[in-house]
Amino acid sequence: MPAFAASAPGKIILFGEHAVVYGQPAIAVPVTQVKARATVMPNVRGTPGEVAIKALDIGLDEVLDKLPEDDPIRAAVAGLMAILNISTIPACSIKITSTIPVASGLGSGAAVSVALIRALAGFLGRPLADETVSKLAFEVEKIHHGTPSGIDNSVVTYAVPVFFIKAQPLHTIEIREPFTLVIGDTGVSSPTRGTVNDVRLHWQADPARYERMFAEIGRITKNARRAIKRGNITQLGVLMDENQTLLREMGVSSPELDRLVASAKSAGAWGAKLSGGGRGGNMIALTSQENAAVVSEALRHAGAVNTILTQVRMPGSCED
Ligand code: PMV
């Protein structure tokens, strides 16, 4: 059996995080500047079922069976074996690398799952349809997130901009004019499970207030889809600011995120907001291409530990 490798990009949520868990739409796009990669190599001297996992970025060098049953890597392999209806896999070594920061809203967990599932399925000679890969990655996301909406595994699997509503067929978004985002990392790790739980507790305590905010975010997200389709990019910035105001009200922003958002705006960004679970992780700023370096510099000055420039465009369209 020859070696087999696969990769998957990171992602960011442009609009609708948290509200998407409650049935509202969200918009997410792939971030191809960062990615997770899995390589499965045969181990001709090993016995069947002997699977070595090497994810050295996260300090993991272990035999698969020794990982806890709820470990996401073990769960992804077990899920794949169940779908393929096989009880043992040939001895192999799985190397996982990723340039996607962990627990920062860039979809690292989903990207590792998707790359791993694809690489192992390919190695076994049983490649899977995207829909199956995404479904399986969704099951693994439940370990990371508890109650994920499914947006991360969808955008990472299909690697296209998506308008996503939980449990509904995926819609890709038509992008009339490419636009530039600067992603700023607070450096604060913030697992999504925690913020999703907190929002649930607040919603249970005051359902009317929270449902009003979710519905308002849903309205903003639908308007954003329209603005993207029409190429009305400055309007998109206004909508990002409105979404950020609601996310702050929901209690998922943080002083670090607020500082980065304010600095991006002062540097001329058309709009800025947190992206993903919040309380840390990454924020995004929408800017003209010419001003992107200035916004990036302002973010670093305001404490961003890293910035990534990305162009959002239709997949397959060429660079300017
Ligand atoms: O933190 P991220 O980027 O994995 O995004 C989480 C998005 C939430 O809406 C907060 C949760 C979800 O499952 O959609």
What does this structure look like?
Helices cover 41% and strands 23% of the residues. With 320 residues, it is of the alpha+beta class. Strands 1, 2, 3, 4, 5, 6 and 7 form a 7-stranded mixed sheet that branches. Strands 9-10-8-11 form a 4-stranded antiparallel sheet. α2 (108-123) packs across α4 (151-158), α3 runs antiparallel to α4 and α8 packs antiparallel against α9. It is globular, with a radius of gyration of 20 Å. 50% of the residues are buried. (3R)-3-hydroxy-3-methyl-5-(phosphonooxy)pentanoic acid binds at residues 13, 17-18, 20-21, 105, 107, 145, 148-149, 151-152, 192, 196, 276-277.
Describe the structure using short key phrases.
four-stranded antiparallel β-sheet, alpha+beta, globular, 320 residues, 23% strand, binds (3R)-3-hydroxy-3-methyl-5-(phosphonooxy)pentanoic acid, 41% helix
What is the beta-strand fraction?
A: 15-25%
Bound molecules: (3R)-3-hydroxy-3-methyl-5-(phosphonooxy)pentanoic acid
Strand count: 11
Secondary-structure-based class equals alpha+beta
> Uncertain runs with pLDDT below 50, 5 residues or more?
none
Report the order of strands and helices.
EEEEHEHHHEEEHHHHEEHE
Based on CA atoms alone, the radius of gyration comes out at: 20 Å
Number of helical elements = 9
Overall pLDDT level: 94
The end-to-end span amounts to 42 Å
Largest sheet: 7 strands, mixed
Taken from the alpha-carbon principal axes, the silhouette is globular
Helix content: 40-55%
